[in-house]
Design brief:
Elements: H1 13-27, H2 39-46, H3 50-62, E1 66-69, E2 73-76, H4 79-87, H5 108-117, E3 122-123, H6 136-150, H7 164-176, E4 186-189, H8 191-203, E5 209-214, H9 218-226, E6 230-237, E7 240-241, H10 243-253, E8 258-260, H11 274-287, E9 291-294, H12 310-313, E10 319-324, E11 336-339, H13 342-356, H14 361-372, H15 376-401, E12 407-408, E13 416-420, H16 427-437, E14 439-440, E15 442-443, E16 456-460, H17 466-495
Parallel strand pairs: 3-14, 5-6, 5-8, 8-9, 9-10
Antiparallel strand pairs: 1-2, 4-11, 6-7, 10-11, 12-13, 13-16, 15-16
Bound molecules: pyridoxal-5'-phosphate (PLP).
Residues 127, 191-193, 217, 219, 261, 266, 294, 296, 324, 326, 331, 336 line the site of pyridoxal-5'-phosphate.
């Protein structure tokens, strides 16, 4: 084959070969189906290395001009195939998705994040603490001190179980909550979200059943669904999880575990009474059912006597405890932890390793340094006072702005409360009207494992100042009235 190579040109030899062969294919000199010379033969004819010809053919094939068949040679392609290769037909990902598809069924978490960013909107939608109260200066100092002290070590790979001094600091903090845990019992996770996921992976197989409160934290539902686990919901009332209902269900349904948020439950804000905590633990012992306890909001109490966690009351190692520094310190550092029974420890650490190797070493060290300074105590005093004022502003605003027939919870702590609208209004319809009025909330229905209550919604009372809360509720109140008028109009039209 006659190919003219310019050995002193800037264009590499393999590209010169590719261009000239491509030109001949385009001009129809080399027709579809024509076999190109074997690489060894062409290399010999052109006095170049075989690799040069192999590279030229590979380029032609990548662009769809030729196709190589092992043992048979390289052939000029059919122009239709070439067009396809040039266009780069998108890969059909949908047809390859085999895993459970329940992740963020509602896309609610990302919608809520988007909404919260919109400057004109007052959003009560997120489950987040207040940005204006995050201890930014103290944490910056801690980061700088760690970088000065540890240098590259602070930015190296780290242990999957977590940075030792941080685990020790967590074990010391837990003593204050009545939890006796050794450093070995503590495993650092990337937020408590990862703790929920690791526990679910270790304790369940696809198709298994777990029991949770109904409603419950939507991110936990995402974890269960994405692990192919079925969720049975048990109602909550002012005293928290209805343990009496649970007592009926556990013996017959034999769940792999019971997931509960006993302190300032998300989304309702209610707290599980001490008496129910004891009964729940008895139930766990009687039927050998593990409990996955989520303590993320329990630090944020504004009134009333504190109640020991299930993990603190547990005497039989039935509880796997997850918690984090997200709600009372800094959600963005993504540091959480588990307190785990020793028999599960290795499995959980291996799961952690498989998921993300370890939690950011700089953040773990900076957090350990921050805890060492002893400033957490003062920070907790500040935020508890501010959140209490904000909660009170929201309770007062709801009483002032909402029409009769609206009900809400009165949490003693946490970040959120739960509202039930008058029967005739659906929260789903109100959602868009509220956005038109400049306020947003989290739709209650996404928090239910099944059979959602259409009239419910969740409001975050912690994220805004009292003045902004009042303005947000004024907007929400006028949206509710607007929606009430619309539903009356619809009914009148129906019956006229
Ligand atoms: C009840 C509950 N558990 C767990 C999480 C996950 O939080 P993080 O991963 O930041 O600890 C949240 C976050 O909103 C939550 O409300």
């Amino acid at each position: 084959m006659n190919i003219d190579l310019k050995r002193d040109a800037a264009m590499p030899l393999y590209l010169q070969i590719k261009e000239q062969l491509q030109g001949r294919i385009e001009q129809g000199v080399l027709l579809p189906g024509t076999r190109l010379p074997a690489t060894r033969t062409l290399a010999g004819d052109l006095d170049v290395s075989r690799v040069t010809v192999v590279n030229a053919y590979a380029e032609l094939e990548a662009e769809g001009w030729v196709r190589a068949y092992v043992g048979r040679g390289t052939f000029v392609s059919d122009p239709r195939r070439r067009d396809e290769a040039l266009r780069g037909t998108p890969y059909d990902w949908e047809s390859t998705l085999l895993g459970p598809s329940g992740v963020s069924a509602s896309g609610m978490l990302s919608d809520m994040l988007d909404l919260a960013q919109h400057p004109d909107l007052i959003s009560f939608a997120m489950g987040a603490p207040a940005t204006d109260l995050l201890p930014v200066r103290d944490f910056r100092e801690a980061i700088n001190q760690v970088l000065r002290r540890d240098g590259g070590e602070a930015l190296q790979y780290d242990e999957a179980a977590g940075y030792g001094p941080l685990r020790a600091a967590i074990a010391r903090l837990l003593v204050g909550d009545g939890i006796q845990a050794s450093v070995r019992d503590v495993v650092v996770t990337s937020g408590s979200q990862q703790g929920l996921d690791l526990a679910t992976r270790v304790l369940t197989a696809p198709g298994d059943l777990v029991i949770s409160e109904s409603p419950t934290y939507v991110g936990a539902l995402d974890v269960f669904r994405s692990n192919g686990v079925e969720v049975l919901g048990v109602p909550v009332d002012e005293g928290g999880l209805r343990v009496d209902v649970l007592e009926e269900l556990v013996p017959s349904r034999d769940p792999r575990f019971i997931y509960t948020i006993p302190g300032f439950h998300n989304p309702t804000g209610v707290t599980l009474s001490l008496e129910r905590r004891r009964r729940l633990l008895q139930l766990a012992r009687r039927y050998d059912t593990p409990i996955l306890e989520d303590g993320v909001c329990s630090e944020l109490r504004y009134e009333g006597a504190s109640i020991l966690s299930l993990r603190a009351l547990d005497r039989g190692e039935h509880v796997v405890y997850v918690n984090s520094f997200s709600k009372f310190l800094l959600p963005g550092i993504r540091v959480g932890y588990m307190v785990v029974p020793q028999d599960l420890r290795e499995r959980l650490i291996r799961g952690k390793q498989a998921a993300d190797l370890f939690t950011c070493s700089l953040m773990q060290r900076a957090l350990a340094r921050y805890l060492d300074t002893g400033r957490l105590g003062a920070h907790l005093v500040t935020i508890r006072q501010a959140y209490r004022e904000r909660r009170d502003a929201m309770l007062a605003g709801l009483a002032r702005r909402m029409p009769t027939g609206t009900e809400w919870t009165r949490p003693q702590g946490g970040l959120c409360l739960w509202v039930r609208l008058p029967e005739s209004i659906s929260a789903g319809q109100l959602y868009l009207t509220a956005i038109e009025h400049g306020a947003a909330f989290a739709l209650g229905s996404v928090f239910f494992p099944k059979n959602p209550d259409p009239s419910s919604l969740r409001l975050n009372f912690a994220a805004h100042s009292p003045t902004r809360i009042d303005e947000g509720l004024r907007r929400l109140g006028s949206a509710v009235r607007d929606q009430l008028r619309r539903s009356v109009d619809v009914r009148e039209k129906q019956y006229s």
